[in-house]
Amino acid sequence: MLGEHELIARIRRRAGSPPAWVTLGIGDDAAVIEPERSARIVLTTDSLVEQIHFTRQLTSWRAIGHKALAVNLSDLAAMGAAPRASLLSLALPTDVALADFDELVEGFVTLAGQAGAPLVGGNLTRSPGPVVIDVTAVGSARPRRLLTRSGGRPGDELFVTGQLGAAAAGLALLRAGAARAALDADASACVCRFERPDARVRCGVTVARRRAASAAIDVSDGLADAVHQLAIASKTGAVVDASDVPVHPGAAGWAANAKQDPLALALSGGEDYELLFAVSRRHRRNFFSAIRQSGDLTATRVGRLQAEPGAWLNRDGRLEPLGPGFVHF
Amino acid sequence: MLGEHELIARIRRRAGSPPAWVTLGIGDDAAVIEPERSARIVLTTDSLVEQIHFTRQLTSWRAIGHKALAVNLSDLAAMGAAPRASLLSLALPTDVALADFDELVEGFVTLAGQAGAPLVGGNLTRSPGPVVIDVTAVGSARPRRLLTRSGGRPGDELFVTGQLGAAAAGLALLRAGAARAALDADASACVCRFERPDARVRCGVTVARRRAASAAIDVSDGLADAVHQLAIASKTGAVVDASDVPVHPGAAGWAANAKQDPLALALSGGEDYELLFAVSRRHRRNFFSAIRQSGDLTATRVGRLQAEPGAWLNRDGRLEPLGPGFVHF
């Protein structure tokens, strides 16, 4: 493996020319960017740790680089913030080959370019153990156009984007050693979702700009955890209607084969990176207009916030406690 | 150890109320801060990895927390940026006790409060190996008041703050198992410098606001490395005058005992976190005024930039190549 300066030079070459708002990119003591006029700075950091969040056996280096940024973009999306820049901090053991390093960087900067979150800086160090990839994403949002977890009110309806359980099913398929060529389209989509999650940036920004939701959170640890967190932050209770939860067809297929409950996969399977919104009734139409402007994306009503405390699952009219989400700590 | 949500709640309590410019602190999908009027956003990230940058045997948890932020503040200082916020991303193995976690957080947030870099967000995850502490510091600087590495010109004089080699001597003393109570004041100061480096934030900001330097870099990997990097970025050569390099008296004392060259310690010993400035002759007085406004801090002329390429050490009139700095990758 090359030294630190050589590796930084490689990243710099691959990252290419940054957009105009980057005053100073990779290579100095710090990066400098221009804030958007009258906007707030939105900051988030999230890491992928080898053996905890990924293994080299199951995920390609390029997918790892993509995912390390995508999980951060998902946090920006949940705030309604437009991506502005990213930082990449890598701790690498000596057994990572240069070609793998290049692939990781490639996965990262390709998504960074697509998302408008140019890589402006970072850090490289040795690791005596796992690969640790720490990413900071910087976004931009107007102060009165920000989405938070805490804005939900009793009576708001809960909507989730896309379909759930796909990433968890994808991971299960990879772990079972499924041959990719033998997978049907739905199962294959699950593997793709696990490896290269899409952050719902356009959706989050559009909903926020139209003030179409009162609260939002990203679904990183399953729908149940997201509902819990949103309800706690909003100081409300919540009910999820079991029959309305949109289970990804690939997840349903995997669950049928594995004799598992597909709903459990949707509620507790991690890494879907969809968005959960609380929407007041008077903003329902506004919200659906925002979703239509968000590209090829659906949103499904899955429940509501209520004044009575607690988070509940409504199964055919019987309420049971909504279990916790995926625990990764 | 507690779960993720409980640990975040502990950090949140300890971090206390953030200053007015923090719109949204710990607890949502991302943090939100207000940029300073007409200022640019300055971003840096740096990590401490167990066994690479610290060991639990030699450094207290509180010192580790302090240092993880200080090394980032030092990068902001080198840009002349005023600290504005910080993010803390922790990967922790299961054998870290709750009391140690609390101490680490305490060291971090105490410095964050002093430096005006409130902890606004972060991430917690398990590590299957070392403790990895990744910090992002966010600063603020006027566009025409920024310091970079690349602004140096032939003829500029090089000045370094403080005295060098202290941190390396402090580490050597700790490694040798020195009893702290038995250390003299100079040696003790070296241990303190290693454990709890001061970032020269006030100095960097003052010099930048007065436009008193043409370039700056922080001395994290020894003076030699800093001079190399500044000269390369400025497309100049550089000469360091060996007899002018300010060696910390504790480093000189350690070197004498260990039969080492004290100059080598100052040139190649890492972690001093002083600042190196390139100053044009017409800004010399302006620069010294800035240093006088930077509190109890000295600056010493150690050499100059020149048109002829390369980085050189001038020993009593004989030029030899300036060796590399501390290699930690």
Q: Give the largest chain-chain interface (CB within 8 Å).
A: A-B, 67 and 67 residues
Largest sheet of chain A: 7 strands, mixed
The share of residues in extended strands of chain A comes to: 25-35%
- How would you describe the shape of chain A? globular
Describe this entry's structure for a reader.
2 copies of one chain form a homodimer. Chain A has 329 residues and is of the alpha+beta class. Helix content of chain A is 36%, strand content 25%. Chain A contains 10 helices and 13 strands. Chain A has helices spanning 4-15, 61-79, 98-115, 166-175, 185-195, 201-209, 223-234, 249-258, 262-268, 284-292, and strands at residues 22-24, 31-33, 40-49, 82-92, 119-126, 132-141, 157-161, 215-219, 237-241, 274-279, 299-306, 311-315, 318-321. A 7-stranded mixed beta sheet of chain A has the order 8-10-7-11-9-12-13. In chain A, helix 2 (61-79) runs parallel beside helix 6 and helix 8 crosses helix 9. The first copy, chain A, is globular, with a radius of gyration of 20 Å. The model of chain A has no long low-confidence stretch (mean pLDDT 95). Chains A and B meet through strand 2, strand 3, helix 2, strand 4 and strand 5 of A and strand 2, strand 3, helix 2, strand 4 and strand 5 of B. Strand 2 of chain A pairs antiparallel with strand 3 (40-49) of chain B, so a sheet runs across the interface.
Keywords:
13 strands, seven-stranded mixed β-sheet, four-stranded mixed β-sheet
